[in-house]
Amino acid sequence: MTSPARPGTVAVRRMTQRLAGLLVVLTAPAWVASAVDQQSLLAPWWNLLALVVVGGPAVWLVVASWRTADVRAPSVALAVGVALCLLLWPPGVVDVDGADQGLPWLWLVLPLTMAALATVGSVGLSTVYGAAVGVVYGLLRLQPIGGSTSFAVAVLEAFLLLTLAVGPAVLVVGASRAAARLDAIADDAARASAAASRASAAVATRRELDAVVHDTVLAALHTAVRDPAAGELPRLAERALETFDSARHHRVDGLRPVASEEVGRRLQECLGAVAPDADLDVRPGPDVPADVARALVDAALEAARNARRHGGGAGTVPDIGVFVSGSTDGQGLAVVVVDDGVGFDPSLVAPQRMGLAVSVFGRMERVGGRAEVVTATGSGTTVRLTWRPEESL
Q: Which residues contact 244 (CB under 8 A, 6 or more apart)?
């Protein structure tokens, strides 16, 4: 079973096919006119033979070159037909005196034949054909029926035919090999890119798992240690189990559009377990992809959890507000979490703390969004989560 042709190889083949067909179209007027002019020098059977074995394959080659068909068959047919006419030229000449006055019209079609034969992609075949045809044509040119040219001119013409045969074949083979090499490089690059994508997906999955563990499991454990009788503990534990079950069985298309109202509804459902006293304000905004909606909700919940856990002072709980709205131009969606707590100094947050780095900033970065924290000691905290389609590309 042969392997399918690669894009570069196909492109080179199509280019050589088109060039061969174009060469027929460009040269046909000259050699057809010359053939008509010399038809009286040749026997009717020879003229009929030339029409069939030269004209037929030439037309076939033009048609095939502009379709999806391979031109190698008509190219070989043209080469065989021209060689046959060349071999039968001596018995086909009926007017020797007239033939002695000029160049056989086959000379005009021979360069086309050599170029067409190059589409076969074999330097050896083109070389053998060019050498054989060159010798036969050179011997013919020395005779009266071939124009009675000098020996030097006959040798020069024979050498030119050989050059016309070898040159295009070398170019076609070289271009084909270069294209095959580029195809191989492209395949290697595609495999490397796929491997990198898999590695990147694995890293993203691990980071998301870290965020899920931090937001649900650790939050539930923290609450249990702090206050085993806390009313939100069962809801935190239930959310942890639901989150892990969703992560294991999640099959929702991440590009499915989710309305801003749905983002608000999810926040309302989950805030009861995280910050039940938070105020929620949802205003119309554009739809966002499902994975963006999840990131906005989860990051906002983590910001609200941090505000409730760390924002108060001396046993107090800060007031928390969560606002969902579209951008002023209607293209993006923002979720803002505000508290009036004690605030903090971001430079003093330990690097190993996962709350902001993984669950807020990391989540938004993975979906092409942004997270911004504005806070200072004693002035509360504002966490702004934004997503715009042009920034996620």
A: 212, 216
Q: What are 115-173's pLDDT values in tens digits?
A: 999 988 889 999 999 999 999 999 999 999 988 899 999 999 999 999 988 988 888 88
Q: 280 - beta bridge partners? A: 322
High-pLDDT (> 70) share of the chain, %:
79
Task: Give the whole-angstrom CA distance, residue 125 versus residue 215.
Answer: 72
Question: Can you tell me the distance from the alpha carbon of 388 to that of 386, in angstroms, rounded to the nearest whole number?
Answer: 7
DSSP H stretches of helix in 142-232: 151-212, 219-226
114/82 Cα distance (integer angstroms): 10
- Is pLDDT above 80 for 269? yes
Q: In what order do the strands lie in the sheet with 320-326?
A: 279-282, 320-326, 333-339, 381-387, 370-375
Please tell me whether residue 231 adopts helix, strand or coil conformation: coil
User: How many Cβ atoms sit within 10 Å of the Cβ of residue 249?
Assistant: 8
DSSP category for residue 358: I
pLDDT: which is higher, 194 or 346: 346
Q: Phi then psi for 352, rounded to 5 degrees?
A: -80, -5
Residue 393 CA neighbour count, 13 Å, CB half: 2
> pLDDT tens-digit profile of 174-199?
888 887 787 777 777 767 765 655 55
